[in-house]
## 1
Amino acid sequence: MHGLSFHKRKQSHLKSIIIGCIVLIALWIGGIIWIGGRDVARVAHIFSTLSSSLESIKSDVEHFRYSRIQDSLAISRQALAELKLQISSAPTFTVSFSPFQAYQKETLTLISLVDLFVSVGYDLSKITIPLETILLVQEGDSHIKELSEQDKKRILDILTSGLPSITGSRASLDLLLQRLEKISDTSLPSQAVPLKQALYNHAQRVRDILDAAVPYLSVAPALLGHDREMTYLLLFQNNAEVRATGGFIGSYGILTLRNGEIKSFFTDNIYNFDDNAKHLRIPPPKPLRTYGGIRAWYLRDSNWSPDFPTAARQALWFYAREGGTKKIDAVLTLTPDVISSLMRIVGPVSVEDLNFDPDQLRDQLEYQVEKGYERRGIARSERKDVIRLIADELIRRIAKLSIVEWEGIFGVMRARLAEKTLMAYTRDSDLFQFLKDHGWSGEVLQKSSDYLMVVDSNIISLKTDAVMDKKISYTIKENDDGVLKAKVLLTYTNNGTFSWTSTTYKDYVRILIPQGSSHISSPIPLEISQEHGKMVLGAFIEIEPQKTGTLSIEYQLPKHVEEDVKKGLYTLFVQKQSGVIGQEISVVAHFVRPIASYSPLIGSTSKSELGSVEFESLLQTDKEYSITFK
């Protein structure tokens, strides 16, 4: 009986111990759930705060409220510090049961990337806020106030001193985006996924802005005459009368800048300048003399070379030889297409009761300088002063644009530099190297692959290029022995009539092909020479109004191109002639070996079959075609 009583008491103690343990475990689990739930709610709130801060920064940038950005950055930095504390410093027993435990590593990585983005924001705000203070009429207004010369100097000072920070920020954003792409959504708590996406979008947007801006910011101070005068020789090329680097130089100008301020600017009829040098009698290039009857060479014909740096140096030589007195630092050349593009942003221009529309500018200008000036009672020597008047009005209008509208100006500059209707040359070796690196120098490029460049030069044919349709057809064919035969077919259609603007098209065409090409044949005589590391095939053609003419040339490509094909790759680089707009190009390739891939796939119509591929497009910029073999 006593033993039974002892046994019951023992069972009772055991039950009490078990119940006590269960209660303690329940309390422990309950505490964890309460603490974990509290932490989860707090962390989720912080994630939401960070996303809101990023949106605020984006909104402030878009609405030019730069002074508010640092407030949003401060909120972000405070939230980040609390988030790190919540995730990395929570008690081990809590974190181990927290829903964030499985995501802790990638969440901390995301936090570090947000922190990096915030640091970039701080660095950039140190530049943008002072600029905003100088530039804008008031905060939140995108319009630029009238700037004094001192204001412009301060802007250039800020850009110069801030460039290392800007380029460093761009590098940081590249690193941020690369690391962010490696974080999958499944490796993050659901509350963090919107933050990751917002961070990616905002970082990419800022990086893209910096990518577009840095090339200009790198050279803008020097080009705008930061702390020194920068003087440009301006060459206005009319591509309705095509010449090697864009068009006949009908007008020229001198522009001097200091700290972004125009110190002097004038334009003049090129003949007024050349007439002072008639005594020089410098022999012109042979085709100008032979086919155009031109007996002396002047600045107006100086752009004979298709290599713009060479043509620019030739222009500088003529400027000095013909009596130019200004010390020139750089040469800037442009066609009417550049002016038209700017007018599409600022609107039509009216000067001296003359109205100029961007879509009709070339024709309107041509009429005024050839016919209209007489009716307006203007001397022939002053008939091209209207170009200066238009330029003055454009400069005045552009200065009043908002920052948003300036994005359009930069877009125009990039597009026109790419198509080479706008080009620059500078004596400064560092600046010139920058132009080369960005493909803005207009030089004949050196390529180890197959290469083609067609260069037309209108010789005494009025403005007939304005009514010409031109097409380049290039065919390459590989025979069974691996020999590569090329054929260039140029088609010219003269849509004009005999008038004061158009006539029979007389063109000295040069076709630049790889050095070492051989077995050249053509139905008409060719003038063969070597220039700029290329073999140059020259010919003179004439196309009467309402007629179509062709020029066909065949040749064998050099051995090094054949060797590339045997190794599995064929590349053709087609360089666009400066200033020419709307030219069609067709490339057809036939190989004995099957094709594995080809490019470009975008921007042209292409089709392939077995060992053949065909491309058709407009030649708006330089093009590179690539084919790989199986």
Note: The longest strand covers residues 248-258.
## 2
Amino acid sequence: MRFKILQNFLKTAKYALALGLASCAFKSAVLRPPPARPVPEIRDRYAIFLLIDGARPEDIDAGVAAGRLPNFKKLFYEEGARFENALTVFPTVSQPAHQALLSGLYPGHHALPSLSWFSRASEKSFDFIQPKGIPFTNTYLFNFLQIPNDQIVTDEPQLIFTTLRGQNTLSVYEPVNQGATVDLPKHLPAITAFTSKYGGFPEEVDVAATRSALRELGNTKKPFPRFTVVTCFGMDVLTHYTGLGSRRTQDLYILYDRFLGDLLELLEKRGIRDKTLLVVSSDHGQHEVKESVNLAEVLVQMGLKIDASPQKSQVMFGRRAIAFSNLYFKVGENWQQKPSYADLKNYSLKNGKKIDLIESLLEHPRIEWVLAPEGPWRLHVHRDRQHAVIEQRRENGKFLYAYRPDPGQDPLDYLGIPEIQRWVRESRFVDAETWLQATANLPIPDAPPVFTQLFDDYQVGEMAIVTTKSSEFHGGHISGHGSPWREDRRVPLLFHGPGIQPGVYPRARSVDLFPTLMDFFGLDPQVPVDGIARRQIFRAQALGDAADPPPSPSLSVSAFEEELKEQIEKKKLSGFKKDKAEQMLYTIREYRRDHAQYAEPGRKAGKTKLSWEANRNQRRSTIKNPTQFR
């Protein structure tokens, strides 16, 4: 027994070291550094972001109503701004959602589309939750929106830390931390990890995180960080195993409330309380889980060959205990060729038999959704026996989306809204902000933009599947996430600080946090993003116009491609840098092939260039004149 405890302790110490490495040497794999620029001038302000992994807005509401969270009540419900329908990205899982909050990009646009993915280029699998995969959370990040713009400025992750270059920034227990000047902890204390993982007290990780943050921020010998993120993972783990709204989760919210109170006292002592913006949000919600699905068994029963070696397997897939999984299918003898939608509908097994992969998966009683693209502009949405196509196109620098359900069907449950009925009847393409306004409070909110974006990059695979509402893959939890349901997508988004106009605001997305913070600091992102600044939460005099960024030297996609090829051929790259370069070359090749083969709705086939200037101007016009229902 003592030996087993010691073995567990040593295993946990190794896990703790891996968590520490996430903030150290393994995080950088930049192939094209950003061009040297002057340090940007910013407003004399500070921002502290408390990211509570797995927090649900209804739990905070209940705690405030019961009087358990006095600091939440005063800061955000009486003096602050909060969004009634703040929606995270899809899939609703941690690392992709953290990246979205800190970069303003959807998972399909920042190269971290799921908790795990398979690289066709290198025939390697990556799992960002396993200890050996955590250090690579920052490694493969890339702003995909630079490809359709045909302007590659850099492959460096443009997180808020890198955008605030020249300023002191702090990351506390946050794995997505590229560019932070201080990362804590350098390694997770082994006793904390042991107590959390084997003692059944995940709260201890959050105790350590909040104490670490207060200690670092209270150090008067160091300049106060312009931006700080403090990430607390305990709520997510605790809710998985104790259930929604359990007494222990209620008590953990009290810890966060006390942290906010201590933080206010610290800011007061350092004389910057009236200059500091406080933000609280989450990466995803949770739903109740009653059943589990062993996806490996399902795939084997369909006749697919599964092996730990990609060379011997017909399918690779995400194996995390969530409601979502992404799948990759082999066509031919290797993984270089990506199967088409037609291939998925008529797939060849090893025994020569042909099957419809999509219909075979939907025959399982606990698999409800299958999403599969047909080229870059059409996404097939299968739910039970219902089917629709979501079409995407670009127009004047904007992504537009059209919902095309089969006659008599409505897999998104949208046709009860008269405005959407008219859009369907008129075959109308609508921008992402208008879709958000129309669907934010529905059971499956904001689906057209977040479903299609997932497949813009090619790393997510050729199919995504989601369980029924009360299920998850692989099991072990009594509550879970990963799905497109409102329960998983709705998150808190709370603001308090200088210039905030108190009130309850109707809707926002998690990708809006990054550009909103950029406006708060008076900066403009150097690269395109998906989010828009929610300027309505600030008083008119609190924000001026952000300074235009200086022109950034960039390469065309073709020139960038040649640069990558040269580095590989001359063996200038090795290890994960080579893996990243090969994956980016694969992405560029597939992007070109798809855009040459499939015509954008209403246009001829071929690459459509979208300039960064148009993208930036559109974001600004959206900020100043939000799209209204027509």
Note: The chain has a mean pLDDT of 86.
## 3
Amino acid sequence: MVRLAAVGRSLGVHLILATQRPSGAITPDIRANINGRIAFRVRDAPDSVDILDSPAAAQLSPSCPGTGLLRRPDGELVAFRAATVFSSTARPQPAEPACSVRRRGDPGGRLEDPERHDPDAPSDLHRIVSAARSAAAHLRLTPARRPWLEPLPVRWEPTTSPAGDLPWALIDRPQTQCQETLPWVMPASFVLVGAAGSGRSTAARALVQRLTARRTPAELHIYGVHDGRALAEVDAIPHLGGLFCHDDVRGLRALLRRLHDEVTQREVAGSPGAHPDLLVVIEGWDLLAGGRLAPQWGGITDPLQRLLHRGRAAGMSSLITGDVALGYGPLGRQADEVIALGLDSPADAVALGLPTSARPTTRCPGRGVLLSDHSEVQLAAPPRVAPVATVGPGGPRRLLPVPSSVSSESLQGGGCGTGPAWWLGVGGDHGEPVPWLPEVLGYTVLVSGPSRSGRSTAAASLARQSGGSTMVVSRHPSRSLAAYADARIVSPDEVETLIAAKRSTPRLTVVVDELDAVTGTPLEPVIRELIEVSARDQAQVVLVTESAALGSRMRGLDAELARRGVGLLLHPAADRAAAEALRARDVDGIPSIPGRAALVTPAGTTEVQLLAPTAPPSPPPTSPRPPPDRSGHQ
């Protein structure tokens, strides 16, 4: 400023400096290069001395606002009264004037009280500005160049053509007198931090909408995590491979598996450009898996963080939002750029390594600061009219949550490969029909679960699909086994009846309820023989046992079958001992609702919602059975 004042006089530059705290601000260089110095009433004499070299400004009466002192270049100190510019809110209006003003010699003539003015009339300052603008337009004067750019808009919508990079933020760089756009270039990694209401969810939604309007599903695959509302508007776009809530632990694990497979496939191929671009949007990192204090937090966030870092080289982009702690954590250090939104608290700015002066001066959604160079930025807002996402083939296979109920109609027409199969329900990562393949898993099905979990209904559903006669062995048959299975009921003491029925009907379906009570009875060797010949006769054997008994014993027929690691466990998260006995893995997060089970096979554990107790579905299609192998090999 001092240099501008020294050089500007010869160039016709007028410079006005103002301050409310003159103490220490008026330097000798300023006094030497400033022609005039003005002081209105100040509180302390030293302030007046700093400006005028005189304490007179501290002695001005407070009853005369606008009174000031001017120190002229020749050293003379001149008192003056500044003109008042009225406005509609300049001063309150008294009900009656404090005094009357009359012309001398005219007792009846009264002048307008100078303290009163029309609140609806334009102010003097407005009139002066309007007159100056009109005169400049009349004279066709060229407007003077502004020394600074217009401030960033409160709402910014980029106008771009479908070609080229997507601008998604506007950066203000006053030091270079320019405002430039921040493009989104794949692969990219950005982190948005801010409190609720700062615009981080809106920015994430706007980015997804603009990207999907420019790219086809074959060119861009998107996966998202949100609170159930932030990204709900984009749930139906064909680019979306999965959208999960923060507390959906099972869905988050399915997302981890999908991202792991995608990254591995691209790494093996060695050419990321040959695959669709991949974008992961996580709105609310601090809420994942129930929050930082939840027991599942590390089991979800740690592998996801490693996948995001590893996937960058494979062409994976990410936009992650969260609280301030996300900005200075590992993800913030790995990101291309961290944008801090809002920053209402100075402590948040300090935690991010920003000076408090770098906080945005305007508070509006989407306004933030780049942590890299402290530049102010305005993120792109969603279009007022949501763009239509491009459609076409090649979209990702959608990850779907497991439904809370399944009817037989939803399984009609589902294919399950070659050979016979029995429908269990709907489950897996893609919400598909889940069958029990007896030629792969065996004709013996172990069904376990706590009371009222639906294990009898599951056994009855399997028995109805066998297509043959059914016999139920139970002391207290449930309504599901007696009615839905449409079977003959015998007690565990009727061993000969069971043997005779098996001899007359080799493909007899046998359902044994309360298997844990069979150990040591005459029925146990019969059941063992039924299990041994089940594959030969293609006869279904369904064994039902209480999960508490399964998890508390090491001996018994049910414990022996559980050690094979094949079975159906209802409510697996409610009984960890039974899950361990059946070798079920990753059962955390499976809800304990009627019909929800884990299908345990050597290939892994699959969450499934079992069929509701209605009419049985149509038998799944089967392929012709291959001729028996006569070579002697099994």
Note: The longest helix spans residues 249-269.
## 4
Amino acid sequence: MFLLAIIGAAGAATGDGEPPPSLSGCHVAPGGHNNNPGTLEQPWATIGFALTQLSPGDDLWIRGGTYREAPLTSSVSGTSGNPVSIHSHPGEVAIIDAAFAEFQTVGNDAWELHDAATETYRSIGSSYPTSATWIGSFVTADGDLYRMFLYGSLAHLMSTSYTYDPSGAYYRGPGFVRHSDGRIYIRLQNLAAPRDAGVPAAAPADHPVRNTPPSSAGFDPRDHKINLSTVADLITLSGTHVHWDRIAFEGGDRGIVFNSASHQTFERCRVYGQRIAFRFNSGNSFIHVLKSDVDNGFPPYISWNEVKTDDPIAPGMKISVSTTDENNHNILFEDNRFRRCFDGMAVVRSTMSNIRFLHNTWDFLFDDAVQFNNGVTNFEFGWNFVNGPGPGYNGGGDPAELHSKWWHHNIIDVRRDEFGRRVGQGGDGTEWRRSHAAFPTHSVSGNTPVKIYNNTILMEQNINNTGARLERKGDTTLGVHEAWNNIVLQYDNREYVRGLKAGSFAIHDYSLFWKFHSGNFAKFNDYPPTDGNPSTDYANLAAWRASAGFAGTKSYYAPGYEANSKEANPQLSAQANPVDRDYRPSPTGPAASGAADLSSSGWPGATSASWFGAVDPDAPTGLGGVGARVVPGP
């Protein structure tokens, strides 16, 4: 019912978002005029005006080009049988852009050199507004988008110190400042001393922090597309039954803001360069984002610890794909690609329900893919590929339905290096941390049983040494937390799982574990005690099964925790080459058979298949349908 209700909002779209050939309806074009009738031959000039002219059942066709109309507000509405559809013209892309035009053309003359030593430039114009919502990014010659720091002062921007200073007086990497003289000052220079910035000497020479973009076209801002804007919200929507097709939303502090909207579908859109791509204020329902490309542009040269501390600038870089308020329901993200974000989705409000993330791809994710509140009801995270940490617990409260959270058939590869901290942040700058656990944990309370099944998890240590974190969280004494049929691979001398808790409210069995490190660190840490005895560490699965702790779990789960699990190499191609992204286990290996039959569970995607992990060993591709199934975007 949930999926059908949302797809029904798409209305006039056909196939894969392709428009009907007649192009009947209303039209906007850069050369039009709002006094025109809005026909193909005599189009309107602005999207904002067109949105005030639409009625249920209308199609709006927008010619390719850049429309600098932000901030936009739309309350246009259709009906379930006659939705409003808004498309880019076939073969073209309409861009709603919040940025100043003068800085966006490569080869522009909008900048002049201010200081040769630091390669700092300043704008020719000198009347740019004072604003709390300045946001900036640049595009490299290779087409990659990166957010820029908004420095606190010109002295900070031009600093030749790379050591962390809580006052902000050090150079972090490319950024800008709006000065009191009305000009914008910008510096795109590489980090002059990447080792001092926190990169260990052993880091590869081609590591992204060593070669801070832009590396291929120098540091003159005139040679790059620079996006600078003062727009808080690019577009705010409050209507119902509207389908957006192949539209690009670029710039602004927040991209698409939903404010009591419903039945809105975004298909093959592009959302680039915002601090928050999608913002859900309260009271939204049946919002579907599919086959879209979202790039927050989080730069690799800012450290994780800077964002997490009270640094006066870096918290503004806590970039998210989506944030939410209370009372949002029936939200679906499907077949999208999310790139270069710090946090993924924040679903941290307790009065939310029917939230689903299916078949999405996260590339270069620095923190949790999704943070969810314990009180969220009907939360599904399935068939996603995550290059970074997966969904994490955050917050308290009991859901209206206890058995309503499912994490399944995901590939969570957290082996990617991540810039941990600079010199001056409590270390010598050599810390190059691996990403979080597969399922991170924040402040948690209440009852939050989750069904975690058929995931493929690849770890190489993690910041808190907590393993995959398959265990239950919070005060769960109601409902059964369960973990089945997962593949857990550890590439460092650390644990598989840590802190498992025994009780009638948890089941852990039928998973496959394997380590690729010869060290003897215990692989099952703080495992369940028998009554009155402390938790114990176990070197391997055999040691656990021979323990009194294992025998004690039989009073909660008759076979005993992990009684049918395996410790064996699943023989993934991707285990040796992450770039390959072939996560199929060997069809003749230990992961190909022996998994639990979950077909009677009623859980989404659960089947009687006997293989472990997220990908069928006989799948035709290395991802086996996990992640985005199309090339997202317009």
Note: The chain has a mean pLDDT of 84.
